[in-house]
Amino acid sequence: MSDIFNERVMCSKCGKEMTKRVFERDGFKLRGWQCECCGKRILHPADEEKYKDFKRIKNKIFKVKLRMVGNSYAVSIPKEVISFMREQERLASRIVKLCIEEAKKLALIFNEFDEAK
Length: 117
What we know:
The chain is of the alpha+beta class. It has 2 domains: 4-58, Ubiquitin-like (UB roll) (Roll), CATH 3.10.20; 66-109. Helices cover 21% and strands 31% of the residues. The protein has 3 helices and 7 strands. It has helices at residues 45-58, 79-85, 88-91, and strands at 19-25, 28-34, 41-43, 66-69, 72-75, 97-102, 105-109. The strands form 3 sheets. It has a 3-stranded antiparallel sheet with strand order 1-2-3. The two termini are 39 Å apart.
């Protein structure tokens, strides 16, 4: 099946062909089209759906338990978050970055480093 992003899209306002673009919202890349004449934008339906899923869980607060494992602490990441990231198999034995963003706030960072190091 062909992807709609490979097709020509015409602007419903001015009738001109729209240009393919990649838009960024909240660090999320969305494929779409923009009319150079009137500025109208259309997002790729699949990317727009993924973005809606992201927005749904972005501000959701998950209550997780902090556990002692040996000399370290462990926190469970909810399945809903991992499923969204679509890397469930690769995350099982993967190292991620952990940093303190501000007082009382930790961040886990996936995909921003060279795994060979």
